[in-house]
Design brief:
Structural class: mainly alpha
Largest sheet: none
Radius of gyration: 16 Å
Number of strands: 0
Number of helices: 5
Order of helices and strands: HHHHH
Helix content: over 70%
Strand content: under 5%
Shape: globular
Distance between the termini: 23 Å
């Protein structure tokens, strides 16, 4: 059990690296060379794995909490019929719902890790 808690702090970074790799492979199939800038998004997460930084960790966590909160507000406004979305957008929202919730949880986990290390 001690080894699980020892390595659990790396879970959010590995999750975001896996998402970046997945998006890269999907875009690379269609666009080829234009997909390589997506890999640059993985640099901060790799940095956190090899040389952790409290400020970068907290900044990444807050950034992804804000982005995920925005997407969650889109879901809520769609449920309350505040805005009208096209069918294609609703289909993307349906499949991306798990992704948004997972991003929010991982971002909160990163913030929790930065708070634990700070105090």
């Amino acid at each position: 059990m001690n080894s699980i808690s020892k390595y659990s702090k790396f879970t959010p970074y590995l999750y975001f690296l896996a998402v970046i790799a997945y998006v890269f492979t999907n875009v690379n199939k269609n666009d080829g060379l234009a997909a390589y800038p997506i890999l640059l998004c993985g640099i901060p997460f790799l940095w956190q794995l090899f040389k952790p930084n409290k400020q970068l960790n907290f900044t990444l966590g807050i950034t992804f909490v804000c982005l995920s909160s925005y997407l969650i507000m889109v879901y809520i406004s769609d449920l309350l019929h505040i805005i009208q979305l096209s069918e294609q957008t609703k289909q993307i929202l349906t499949f991306g719902g798990v992704f948004v919730i997972a991003n929010f949880i991982m971002a909160l986990w990163m913030i929790r890790n930065s708070m634990k290390r700070r105090f």
